[in-house]
Design a protein that fits this description.
By secondary structure, this protein is an alpha+beta fold. The protein contains ten helices and 13 strands.
Length: 408
């Protein structure tokens, strides 16, 4: 079954918002106008957060947020960025006490009451209001999703007691040395900037080559590669055991502060690991990533040699995996678990000169080293990249190429 995420990645048409859109705009404008007048009327003070905060004896952060919100041209942005009703009331009370005309603060209180009713009566919570209004503008939606994903990252990292700067997957596809239609796969995978946060939480990672693969259809091989010269941090100390054919790594270093960061990156080579053409029920080729830990950035690179999948644009599939595990992109029953996203795959062109990653300064050197070991020149490759800030923990990110059927 073919998918095209771009067809469904547009803004949600939220009828509940649109039905009352005029009144919502009026409420936003009411807040903008009333607070502009009140703050401008504070005696012996200018419209700078520090001066206002001192004069009113309130939080500078609170005042700065209000000034930022009322400066928005879009009244909907004002509603999503301004502090909550109780905070606004406290500022108005402080303004009245500082000598601002009571008629101005009364108008402000009326605007705040309308805002409060909007939240309580139409949406129930401030979070629900922000979520609904975010779909009315592309920039607002991007900011809302980024903020929401950050909150998930912080929460899950604290619950699990671990976080990392970057989750890295690099899949290099080269022609098979033994089969005409086959493709050899070489991967760099792992994480950089790994940090343990809690001493009471066991951190278990699936990592390396499961022993059960040794005699399977595919033969992953550890390349004779030492990637540690390209690490940004100390190699992660692991306690390694095998359970039911799976390698389990326990990451439990002593917690020594914010600079106790580690790298856990390895390489695997799979001869004839893929095929240029479709087979019954297998029409897509690509890579699938589910980060083991909460991470700030996910980078998934597919580096293609020569004419492999030439002219085929990759597609992005994002799945919720909770309760069901990783999804097979070919399984239509998992369509219900797909997540609409505005994230995009970027074409980085020919060669590896555009592969730099700030958090992994020697990444390009690492890829160049891998190309050399495989016997290919960097300029013979092209790259597609998926890069996501604060990927949602528990989500699966798939980059897939829909491959042709071989002519008979």
């Amino acid at each position: 079954m073919d998918f095209d995420l771009n067809d469904s990645a547009g803004l949600v048409n939220n009828s509940e918002v649109n039905e009352g859109h005029e009144s919502i705009e009026q409420i936003g404008n009411g807040l903008k106008n009333s607070f502009d007048l009140v703050l401008d009327a504070v005696p012996n003070c200018n419209l700078r957060p520090t001066n206002l905060a001192r004069k009113l004896d309130v939080s500078r952060v609170m005042v700065s947020r209000i000034l930022g919100a009322i400066s928005k041209e879009n009244s909907i942005e004002t509603l999503t960025s301004i502090p909550g009703p109780e905070t606004l009331r406290s500022v108005l009370r402080a303004a009245c006490g500082s000598g601002v005309d009571e008629s101005l603060t009364d108008d402000g209180l009326l605007a705040v009451e309308a805002f409060d009713r909007l939240i309580r009566d139409q949406f129930g919570t401030r979070a629900a209001l922000n979520a609904a209004l975010s779909t009315t503008d592309t920039d607002m939606l991007d900011k809302f999703e980024q903020s929401s994903r950050y909150q998930v990252f912080k929460g899950m990292s604290q619950v699990l007691g671990v976080e990392s700067k970057i989750w890295l997957t690099c899949m290099v596809l080269t022609p098979s040395k033994t089969e005409v239609d086959a493709i050899d796969i070489t991967t760099i995978h792992g994480t950089s900037g790994l940090r343990r946060l809690r001493s009471d939480m066991p951190i278990l990672l699936s990592y390396g080559i499961p022993p059960r693969y040794k005699f399977g259809r595919q033969n992953p091989e550890q390349l004779e590669l030492d990637l540690t010269p390209f690490f940004s941090h100390t190699p992660a100390p692991l306690i390694v055991v095998e359970e039911s054919g799976q390698i389990i790594n326990t990451f439990a270093p002593k917690i020594e502060g914010k600079d106790s960061l580690y790298d856990l990156i390895a390489s695997v080579h799979i001869p004839n690991g893929s095929n240029r053409y479709a087979a019954p029920g297998r029409t897509k080729r690509g890579t699938s990533v589910i980060p083991d830990v909460p991470v700030v950035t996910l980078v998934s690179d597919l580096i293609l040699h020569g004419d492999i999948f030439e002219g085929i644009e990759p597609q992005l599939f994002v799945y919720k995996t909770m309760g069901k595990g990783g999804a097979d992109v070919e399984d239509p029953e998992r369509d219900i678990d797909r997540v609409v996203t505005s994230d995009e795959i970027v074409d980085l062109g020919v060669g590896i000169q555009n592969l730099d990653i700030p958090d992994v300064p020697k990444y390009r050197e690492m890829v160049n080293y891998l190309c050399d070991k495989n016997g290919y020149k960097p300029e013979e490759f092209r790259t597609h990249r998926l890069q996501i800030q604060y990927p949602v923990y528990g989500f699966q990110y798939v980059v897939a190429y829909k491959v042709p059927v071989k002519d008979s």
